[in-house]
Amino acid sequence: DTAVSQTPKYLVTQMGNDKSIKCEQNLGHDTMYWYKQDSKKFLKIMFSYNNKELIINETVPNRFSPKSPDKAHLNLHINSLELGDSAVYFCASSQEAGTRRYNEQFFGPGTRLTVL
Amino acid sequence: RKEVEQDPGPFNVPEGATVAFNCTYSNSASQSFFWYRQDCRKEPKLLMSVYSSGNEDGRFTAQLNRASQYISLLIRDSKLSDSATYLCVVNGYNQGGKLIFGQGTELSVKP
């Protein structure tokens, strides 16, 4: 009965590889997010999708491409991985983002990516 | 200047102590304010929202000063289980749910 799940939990890979991280939420939320938490612990938003439509796209390299097949899933594909991509990637979801003032975001357990 | 700034700590306090965390934000148009808690190697979780009039939840009290763009969190009677990183978070109106996180303040409560 996990609310927001991510796979894999750990990902160790070589520079230059392509990898994907999957996220699923069973809360019935219509908005999902990807965040990156770097080694200095700063948590920064990368993307947000509302009902499968991209609504937030921060300054992120083109190598990162989110895909939302339906509103319960938001996957993150990363091409040509670089050392600087090493971080913890968190998926999150909330209900009715947009002009609503606030809705609590629920985070997944994170995917710890290490690029060697 | 960072959009949300916090003292990173660590704050090392004995059980039962009262501890206060401060946070400042740069965007005066910010509308919603929160404290999230993140345990070591875990995901962030909402601790409490912060309202203009100030609000309390058990041992936790949050305050907001819009004029000074300042947010605070007070923890009374600290417990060992309060040890975590406390993240100050700000959301701008009509920004599609975009949350801006401070870097967090680390709290360690010792017996």
Key words describing this protein structure:
A: 116 residues; mainly beta; four-stranded antiparallel sheet; 11 strands; B: 111 residues; six-stranded mixed sheet; five-stranded antiparallel sheet
What is this entry, summarized?
By secondary structure, chain A is mostly beta strands. Chain A has strands at residues 4-7, 10-13, 19-25, 31-37, 43-50, 53-57, 64-70, 73-78, 87-94, 106-107, 111-115.
Termini separation of chain B (Å)? Answer: 37 Å
Radius of gyration of chain B: 13 Å
Question: Could you tell me the mean pLDDT of chain B?
Answer: 92
Percent helix of chain A: under 10%
Q: Which percent band covers the strand fraction of chain B?
A: over 45%
Shape of chain A: globular
Structural category of chain B is mainly beta
What percent of residues of chain B adopt helix (DSSP H or I)? under 10%
Oligomer: heterodimer
N-to-C series of helices and strands of chain B: EEEEEEEEEEE
N→C terminal distance of chain A: 34 Å
Structural class determined from secondary elements of chain A: mainly beta
Radius of gyration of chain A: 13 Å
Query: How would you state the average pLDDT of chain A, rounded?
Result: 90
Pick out the low-confidence regions of chain B. none
What's the SSE pattern of chain A?
EEEEEEEEEEE
Biggest sheet architecture of chain A: 7 strands, mixed
Largest inter-chain contact set: A-B, 27 and 24 residues
- Poorly predicted ranges of chain A (pLDDT <50, ≥5 residues)? none
Account of the protein in words:
Chain A has 116 residues and is mostly beta strands. Chain A is 0% helix and 54% strand. Chain B is an all-beta fold. In chain B, 0% of the residues lie in helices and 57% in strands. Chain B has no helices and 11 strands. In chain B, strands 2, 4, 5, 9, 10 and 11 form a 6-stranded mixed β-sheet that branches. A 5-stranded antiparallel β-sheet of chain B has the order 1-3-8-7-6, with no helix packed on it. The chains are: A mainly beta (116), B mainly beta (111). At the A-B interface, strand 5 of A face strand 4, strand 5, strand 9 and strand 10 of B.
